Amino acid sequence: MIEALQLDFMRNALAAGILVSIVCGVIGTLVVVNRIVFLAGGIAHAAYGGIGLAVFMGWPFLAGTAGFSLLAAGIMAAVTLRAKHRADAMVGVIWAVGMATGVILLDLTPGYHVDLMSYLFGSILAVPAEDLWQMAAMGSAVIWVVFWYYHDFLAMSYDDEFARLRNVPVTFLYCLLLGMIALAVVMIMRVVGLILVIALLTIPPFIAEKFSRSLCTMMVISAFLSCIFSVAGLWLSYWLNLTSGATIIMVAAAGFFAVVLWERFRTMIAAAPPPLP
After folding, report:
1. DSSP H or E segment with residue 211
2. Crossing angle between the packed helical segments 48-57 and 87-108, to the nearest 10 degrees
3. Is 59 helix (H, G, I), strand (E, B) or coil?
4. φ/ψ (deg, to 5) at 194
5. What gap in Å lies between CA 56 and CA 193, rounded to an integer?
6. Does some domain include residue 275?
7. Number of domains composing the chain
8. The pTM of the whole model exceeds 0.85
9. DSSP string covering 184-201, please?
């Protein structure tokens, strides 16, 4: 891996993986504790429309995709707040319309033959240096917002009714959270692709939750685990000549199943009868 870091694209890939991992740890924790994984998945897949729009209009990838994702997140926030009993159906519609819009716009782009695999499964090895600065700016903004509203997010995440009684702006925070998820999705997309975004957003927080007693600790552990999974997956993909995004997710999945098996084993040991005297 040391020799690989002599290559510019590998250094960019490692930096992108670490940046994304930190954001995943913070935003993924809020996604898991607020139980909005389905909404995050809807935003992730609707973001494909932003890819098509950016390519069709000739806009920068991150700017075009971020704008479209924020629009999709705003619509989903309005729908889920006003019609919760129909939220799942509406999210599914927005999900499908976003992806269909992206495909059609890419088809209409003159002389452009899109590599669907790079968007669906990530292209971390192709992240340019200028995108790293944009990702760093987006990540810093997301982390600063979470830090600023940490106690309000904490109250909303564990008891939104109590938070409303304490005059916490739950509706505003909910919309803000979906907006940050949209920005996080745009960042993660470059690393693992649209299809695998949810895995990187949810697996590290799920593991971290089992070893945490506070929301802040869960975020820190989740970010640390995400970094480990990203670096290990990137190294394995280089060594075995595999797709980087998929390899990162497989490493995370291996960690997930290892924790699940360890919990089962520990439960069996605790439930076992004591030895006879």
Report:
1. none
2. 30
3. coil
4. -65, -40
5. 19
6. no
7. 1
8. yes
9. HHHHHHHHHTTTTHHHHH
